[in-house]
Design brief:
about 25% strand, 7-stranded mixed β-sheet
Length: about 375
Protein backbone atom coordinates (compact mmCIF):
# COMPACT_ATOMS: atom_id res chain seq x y z
CA UNK A 1 0.00 0.00 0.00
CA UNK A 2 1.55 3.33 -1.02
CA UNK A 3 2.35 5.77 1.76
CA UNK A 4 1.24 9.38 1.45
CA UNK A 5 3.86 12.07 1.64
CA UNK A 6 2.36 13.40 4.85
CA UNK A 7 2.51 10.07 6.68
CA UNK A 8 5.37 9.74 9.24
CA UNK A 9 8.27 7.47 8.33
CA UNK A 10 9.85 5.32 11.03
CA UNK A 11 13.52 6.05 11.59
CA UNK A 12 16.21 4.58 13.79
CA UNK A 13 16.54 6.24 17.14
CA UNK A 14 20.00 7.51 17.95
CA UNK A 15 21.68 7.34 21.31
CA UNK A 16 25.14 7.91 22.73
CA UNK A 17 27.10 4.67 23.23
CA UNK A 18 29.38 4.74 26.26
CA UNK A 19 32.62 2.80 26.24
CA UNK A 20 32.02 -0.82 27.13
CA UNK A 21 32.28 -1.82 30.78
CA UNK A 22 34.41 -4.96 30.97
CA UNK A 23 33.56 -7.17 33.94
CA UNK A 24 36.42 -9.55 33.33
CA UNK A 25 37.77 -11.40 36.35
CA UNK A 26 41.54 -11.50 36.45
CA UNK A 27 43.33 -14.76 35.85
CA UNK A 28 44.99 -16.30 38.89
CA UNK A 29 48.72 -16.89 38.56
CA UNK A 30 50.36 -15.80 41.82
CA UNK A 31 51.50 -19.31 42.77
CA UNK A 32 52.76 -20.02 39.26
CA UNK A 33 54.74 -16.79 39.08
CA UNK A 34 56.16 -17.25 42.59
CA UNK A 35 57.25 -20.87 42.29
CA UNK A 36 57.69 -21.41 38.55
CA UNK A 37 59.24 -18.40 36.79
CA UNK A 38 60.29 -18.64 33.17
CA UNK A 39 63.66 -20.13 34.12
CA UNK A 40 61.88 -23.28 35.35
CA UNK A 41 60.02 -24.02 32.10
CA UNK A 42 61.10 -27.19 30.27
CA UNK A 43 59.62 -28.37 26.95
CA UNK A 44 59.86 -32.10 26.27
CA UNK A 45 60.02 -34.34 23.22
CA UNK A 46 57.69 -36.87 24.83
CA UNK A 47 54.69 -36.97 27.16
CA UNK A 48 56.34 -38.50 30.23
CA UNK A 49 58.89 -37.27 32.75
CA UNK A 50 60.95 -39.45 35.05
CA UNK A 51 62.44 -38.15 38.28
CA UNK A 52 65.37 -40.11 39.73
CA UNK A 53 66.32 -39.66 43.36
CA UNK A 54 69.45 -40.54 45.33
CA UNK A 55 69.09 -40.71 49.10
CA UNK A 56 72.02 -40.56 51.47
CA UNK A 57 72.51 -39.69 55.14
CA UNK A 58 76.10 -39.56 56.40
CA UNK A 59 77.00 -41.74 59.38
CA UNK A 60 79.93 -41.48 61.74
CA UNK A 61 82.91 -43.66 60.90
CA UNK A 62 83.33 -46.57 63.34
CA UNK A 63 86.54 -47.30 65.22
CA UNK A 64 88.39 -50.59 64.74
CA UNK A 65 91.38 -52.21 66.39
CA UNK A 66 94.78 -51.51 64.90
CA UNK A 67 95.28 -53.90 61.97
CA UNK A 68 91.61 -54.83 62.25
CA UNK A 69 89.38 -55.35 59.19
CA UNK A 70 88.03 -52.22 57.57
CA UNK A 71 84.31 -51.53 57.85
CA UNK A 72 82.29 -51.24 54.67
CA UNK A 73 79.99 -48.24 54.32
CA UNK A 74 76.75 -48.13 52.37
CA UNK A 75 76.26 -46.15 49.19
CA UNK A 76 73.35 -43.81 48.35
CA UNK A 77 70.12 -45.59 47.53
CA UNK A 78 68.26 -44.79 44.33
CA UNK A 79 64.57 -44.56 43.45
CA UNK A 80 62.56 -43.11 40.61
CA UNK A 81 59.01 -42.23 39.67
CA UNK A 82 57.41 -41.41 36.35
CA UNK A 83 54.64 -38.93 35.60
CA UNK A 84 52.58 -38.89 32.43
CA UNK A 85 51.77 -35.32 31.50
CA UNK A 86 48.06 -34.48 31.22
CA UNK A 87 46.79 -32.98 27.98
CA UNK A 88 44.57 -29.95 27.32
CA UNK A 89 42.81 -29.36 24.00
CA UNK A 90 40.40 -26.43 23.60
CA UNK A 91 38.40 -25.07 20.68
CA UNK A 92 36.19 -22.08 19.93
CA UNK A 93 34.10 -21.87 16.72
CA UNK A 94 33.34 -18.57 15.02
CA UNK A 95 30.48 -18.30 12.53
CA UNK A 96 29.51 -15.31 10.40
CA UNK A 97 25.81 -15.36 11.23
CA UNK A 98 26.03 -16.05 14.94
CA UNK A 99 29.27 -14.39 16.03
CA UNK A 100 30.47 -11.95 13.41
CA UNK A 101 27.58 -9.86 12.12
CA UNK A 102 25.54 -9.75 15.29
CA UNK A 103 26.18 -6.80 17.54
CA UNK A 104 28.35 -7.47 20.60
CA UNK A 105 28.71 -5.25 23.66
CA UNK A 106 30.56 -2.04 22.85
CA UNK A 107 29.89 -2.19 19.10
CA UNK A 108 27.72 -0.01 16.90
CA UNK A 109 24.50 -1.37 15.41
CA UNK A 110 25.38 -0.78 11.77
CA UNK A 111 28.62 -1.42 9.92
CA UNK A 112 29.90 1.75 8.27
CA UNK A 113 31.71 2.10 4.97
CA UNK A 114 31.19 0.46 1.60
CA UNK A 115 34.16 -1.91 1.73
CA UNK A 116 34.88 -4.99 3.80
CA UNK A 117 37.34 -3.29 6.12
CA UNK A 118 34.92 -3.07 9.02
CA UNK A 119 33.98 -6.74 8.76
CA UNK A 120 37.64 -7.77 8.67
CA UNK A 121 38.34 -5.69 11.76
CA UNK A 122 35.52 -7.42 13.59
CA UNK A 123 36.75 -10.81 12.44
CA UNK A 124 40.31 -10.19 13.65
CA UNK A 125 38.99 -8.80 16.93
CA UNK A 126 36.88 -11.91 17.53
CA UNK A 127 39.81 -14.20 16.71
CA UNK A 128 42.07 -12.46 19.22
CA UNK A 129 39.33 -12.42 21.88
CA UNK A 130 38.69 -16.15 21.51
CA UNK A 131 42.39 -16.95 21.68
CA UNK A 132 42.70 -14.87 24.86
CA UNK A 133 39.76 -16.74 26.44
CA UNK A 134 41.42 -20.09 25.77
CA UNK A 135 44.78 -18.87 27.06
CA UNK A 136 43.13 -17.62 30.26
CA UNK A 137 41.48 -21.01 30.76
CA UNK A 138 44.87 -22.74 30.50
CA UNK A 139 46.40 -20.24 32.93
CA UNK A 140 43.66 -20.94 35.48
CA UNK A 141 44.19 -24.68 35.15
CA UNK A 142 47.96 -24.33 35.59
CA UNK A 143 47.47 -22.28 38.75
CA UNK A 144 45.15 -24.99 40.08
CA UNK A 145 47.78 -27.63 39.31
CA UNK A 146 50.44 -25.70 41.26
CA UNK A 147 48.08 -25.37 44.25
CA UNK A 148 47.37 -29.10 44.13
CA UNK A 149 51.08 -29.91 43.87
CA UNK A 150 51.70 -27.99 47.11
CA UNK A 151 49.23 -30.33 48.82
CA UNK A 152 51.10 -33.39 47.54
CA UNK A 153 49.07 -34.67 44.59
CA UNK A 154 47.13 -33.58 41.50
CA UNK A 155 43.84 -35.42 41.04
CA UNK A 156 41.39 -34.94 38.18
CA UNK A 157 38.37 -36.96 37.12
CA UNK A 158 35.58 -35.93 34.75
CA UNK A 159 33.27 -38.29 32.88
CA UNK A 160 33.94 -38.43 29.14
CA UNK A 161 37.12 -36.41 29.68
CA UNK A 162 40.21 -37.58 31.54
CA UNK A 163 41.00 -39.19 34.85
CA UNK A 164 44.38 -39.25 36.57
CA UNK A 165 46.18 -38.85 39.88
CA UNK A 166 49.77 -37.59 40.05
CA UNK A 167 51.32 -38.09 43.48
CA UNK A 168 54.46 -36.39 44.75
CA UNK A 169 56.60 -37.69 47.60
CA UNK A 170 55.47 -35.16 50.19
CA UNK A 171 55.98 -36.68 53.67
CA UNK A 172 52.90 -37.00 55.86
CA UNK A 173 54.73 -35.08 58.58
CA UNK A 174 54.81 -32.01 56.34
CA UNK A 175 51.04 -31.62 56.81
CA UNK A 176 51.04 -29.93 60.23
CA UNK A 177 47.78 -29.73 62.18
CA UNK A 178 48.13 -27.69 65.36
CA UNK A 179 46.70 -29.10 68.61
CA UNK A 180 43.19 -28.05 69.57
CA UNK A 181 43.30 -24.83 71.55
CA UNK A 182 46.51 -23.65 69.82
CA UNK A 183 45.07 -22.61 66.47
CA UNK A 184 46.03 -19.07 65.61
CA UNK A 185 42.47 -17.86 66.09
CA UNK A 186 42.24 -19.37 69.60
CA UNK A 187 43.31 -18.08 73.00
CA UNK A 188 46.30 -20.42 73.27
CA UNK A 189 47.91 -19.32 70.00
CA UNK A 190 51.69 -18.93 69.94
CA UNK A 191 52.56 -18.29 66.27
CA UNK A 192 56.24 -17.44 66.74
CA UNK A 193 56.83 -20.66 68.66
CA UNK A 194 54.86 -22.65 66.09
CA UNK A 195 56.92 -21.22 63.25
CA UNK A 196 60.09 -22.35 64.97
CA UNK A 197 58.88 -25.77 66.16
CA UNK A 198 56.82 -26.88 63.16
CA UNK A 199 58.21 -24.91 60.22
CA UNK A 200 61.77 -23.57 60.52
CA UNK A 201 63.43 -26.11 62.83
CA UNK A 202 62.31 -29.24 60.91
CA UNK A 203 63.34 -27.58 57.66
CA UNK A 204 66.95 -27.38 58.85
CA UNK A 205 66.95 -31.12 59.46
CA UNK A 206 65.61 -32.21 56.07
CA UNK A 207 68.86 -32.69 54.15
CA UNK A 208 69.78 -29.15 55.17
CA UNK A 209 66.77 -27.80 53.26
CA UNK A 210 66.57 -24.14 52.26
CA UNK A 211 64.95 -21.60 54.54
CA UNK A 212 61.21 -21.07 54.25
CA UNK A 213 60.75 -17.65 52.64
CA UNK A 214 57.02 -17.28 52.00
CA UNK A 215 53.71 -18.27 53.57
CA UNK A 216 50.59 -18.21 51.40
CA UNK A 217 47.48 -17.93 53.56
CA UNK A 218 43.81 -18.50 52.95
CA UNK A 219 41.53 -15.60 53.78
CA UNK A 220 40.52 -17.09 57.14
CA UNK A 221 44.14 -17.75 58.12
CA UNK A 222 45.12 -14.23 57.08
CA UNK A 223 42.33 -12.75 59.20
CA UNK A 224 43.60 -14.67 62.24
CA UNK A 225 47.14 -13.41 61.66
CA UNK A 226 45.98 -9.79 61.38
CA UNK A 227 44.16 -10.10 64.69
CA UNK A 228 47.34 -11.44 66.33
CA UNK A 229 49.47 -8.68 64.83
CA UNK A 230 47.07 -6.00 66.07
CA UNK A 231 47.10 -7.33 69.64
CA UNK A 232 49.26 -5.49 72.13
CA UNK A 233 51.61 -8.40 72.73
CA UNK A 234 52.53 -8.74 69.10
CA UNK A 235 52.82 -4.99 68.74
CA UNK A 236 55.32 -5.10 71.60
CA UNK A 237 57.22 -7.89 69.88
CA UNK A 238 57.28 -5.85 66.72
CA UNK A 239 58.72 -2.87 68.54
CA UNK A 240 61.23 -4.61 70.80
CA UNK A 241 62.35 -7.74 68.97
CA UNK A 242 61.70 -6.50 65.43
CA UNK A 243 60.67 -9.93 64.22
CA UNK A 244 57.23 -8.82 63.06
CA UNK A 245 56.98 -6.25 60.27
CA UNK A 246 53.42 -5.26 59.43
CA UNK A 247 52.32 -4.34 55.92
CA UNK A 248 52.04 -0.63 55.18
CA UNK A 249 48.43 0.02 56.17
CA UNK A 250 48.80 3.69 55.23
CA UNK A 251 49.23 2.79 51.56
CA UNK A 252 47.17 -0.38 51.28
CA UNK A 253 47.19 -0.26 47.49
CA UNK A 254 50.91 -0.91 47.48
CA UNK A 255 50.35 -4.14 49.40
CA UNK A 256 47.61 -5.37 47.07
CA UNK A 257 48.98 -6.62 43.79
CA UNK A 258 47.15 -6.91 40.50
CA UNK A 259 47.30 -10.69 40.73
CA UNK A 260 44.96 -10.67 43.71
CA UNK A 261 47.44 -11.39 46.49
CA UNK A 262 47.70 -9.12 49.52
CA UNK A 263 50.96 -8.70 51.43
CA UNK A 264 50.36 -9.02 55.17
CA UNK A 265 53.85 -8.55 56.52
CA UNK A 266 57.00 -10.36 57.59
CA UNK A 267 56.96 -12.60 60.65
CA UNK A 268 60.14 -14.28 61.87
CA UNK A 269 61.85 -13.62 58.48
CA UNK A 270 58.95 -15.22 56.53
CA UNK A 271 56.86 -13.12 54.15
CA UNK A 272 53.13 -13.69 54.69
CA UNK A 273 50.60 -13.28 51.87
CA UNK A 274 46.83 -13.52 51.71
CA UNK A 275 45.61 -15.41 48.65
CA UNK A 276 41.88 -15.99 48.72
CA UNK A 277 41.50 -16.72 45.02
CA UNK A 278 39.27 -19.50 43.73
CA UNK A 279 38.92 -21.24 40.38
CA UNK A 280 35.88 -22.63 38.58
CA UNK A 281 35.92 -25.83 36.53
CA UNK A 282 33.95 -26.68 33.40
CA UNK A 283 31.07 -27.96 35.51
CA UNK A 284 30.68 -24.68 37.39
CA UNK A 285 32.23 -26.02 40.61
CA UNK A 286 34.31 -23.50 42.55
CA UNK A 287 37.39 -24.42 44.59
CA UNK A 288 39.70 -22.34 46.76
CA UNK A 289 43.32 -22.47 45.65
CA UNK A 290 44.50 -22.33 49.26
CA UNK A 291 42.38 -24.51 51.54
CA UNK A 292 40.26 -22.71 54.11
CA UNK A 293 42.23 -22.04 57.34
CA UNK A 294 45.44 -23.48 55.82
CA UNK A 295 48.82 -21.86 55.18
CA UNK A 296 51.28 -23.15 52.58
CA UNK A 297 54.93 -22.55 53.52
CA UNK A 298 57.36 -22.53 50.60
CA UNK A 299 60.89 -21.53 49.72
CA UNK A 300 61.84 -19.49 46.68
CA UNK A 301 65.57 -19.29 47.28
CA UNK A 302 67.73 -20.06 44.22
CA UNK A 303 68.45 -23.50 45.65
CA UNK A 304 64.76 -24.24 46.11
CA UNK A 305 63.77 -22.96 42.67
CA UNK A 306 66.37 -25.24 41.12
CA UNK A 307 64.11 -28.08 42.31
CA UNK A 308 61.01 -26.55 40.67
CA UNK A 309 60.30 -27.52 37.05
CA UNK A 310 57.26 -26.74 34.96
CA UNK A 311 57.27 -29.39 32.26
CA UNK A 312 55.41 -29.11 28.95
CA UNK A 313 54.99 -32.35 27.07
CA UNK A 314 55.09 -32.78 23.32
CA UNK A 315 51.90 -31.61 21.61
CA UNK A 316 50.19 -34.74 20.30
CA UNK A 317 48.79 -33.17 17.15
CA UNK A 318 49.67 -34.16 13.58
CA UNK A 319 49.86 -30.57 12.32
CA UNK A 320 52.16 -29.64 15.19
CA UNK A 321 54.32 -32.71 14.62
CA UNK A 322 54.56 -32.23 10.84
CA UNK A 323 55.24 -28.52 11.21
CA UNK A 324 57.98 -28.98 13.78
CA UNK A 325 55.96 -27.06 16.36
CA UNK A 326 55.14 -29.88 18.77
CA UNK A 327 57.91 -29.11 21.29
CA UNK A 328 56.37 -25.99 22.80
CA UNK A 329 54.38 -24.69 25.78
CA UNK A 330 51.35 -23.98 23.61
CA UNK A 331 50.20 -24.88 20.12
CA UNK A 332 47.47 -22.87 18.41
CA UNK A 333 45.91 -23.69 15.08
CA UNK A 334 42.75 -22.94 13.13
CA UNK A 335 40.43 -24.68 10.74
CA UNK A 336 38.03 -23.22 8.15
CA UNK A 337 35.01 -25.41 7.54
CA UNK A 338 33.40 -24.53 4.22
CA UNK A 339 29.77 -25.58 4.59
CA UNK A 340 28.38 -24.51 6.96
CA UNK A 341 31.03 -21.81 7.08
CA UNK A 342 32.74 -21.89 10.49
CA UNK A 343 36.18 -20.72 11.59
CA UNK A 344 37.45 -22.88 14.47
CA UNK A 345 40.43 -22.04 16.67
CA UNK A 346 42.26 -24.63 18.75
CA UNK A 347 44.71 -24.32 21.64
CA UNK A 348 46.64 -27.34 22.94
CA UNK A 349 49.15 -27.81 25.73
CA UNK A 350 50.46 -30.54 28.04
CA UNK A 351 51.51 -28.93 31.36
CA UNK A 352 52.78 -30.42 34.61
CA UNK A 353 54.40 -28.52 37.52
CA UNK A 354 56.80 -30.70 39.49
CA UNK A 355 58.23 -29.91 42.91
CA UNK A 356 61.22 -32.25 42.91
CA UNK A 357 61.70 -31.71 46.65
CA UNK A 358 58.16 -31.63 48.07
CA UNK A 359 59.65 -32.33 51.51
CA UNK A 360 60.98 -28.76 51.48
CA UNK A 361 57.44 -27.37 51.72
CA UNK A 362 55.07 -27.33 54.68
CA UNK A 363 51.28 -27.12 54.97
CA UNK A 364 49.83 -25.92 58.26
CA UNK A 365 46.28 -25.84 59.60
Amino acid sequence: MPVSASAPVEALKTRYLCSVVKRFDRTNRFLTDLLFPKSTWVTLENDEVQVDELSYSPTMAPFVEVNGEAVMLGRPTGSSYTHKLPFISLKMPLSATRDLLLRHAGETNILTGTRTGDILKRLNKRILEDLKIMEDAVTEREEWMVAQALRGSITYSQSNRASFKITFAKPAGNEVVLPVGEFWDEAGASPLTDLDVYIKRPQANVAQGPNITDAICSESAADAIRVLIEEDTLKLLAMEQRNVAYGNVQVFEENYAENGVCYIGKINTIRFWEYGASVTDEGGNTELLIRDKWIEFVSVTPRARAMHKFFYGVIMDMEALKGGLAIARRFAKNELKKDPSVYVQYLKTSPLPVLKRPDWNRSCL
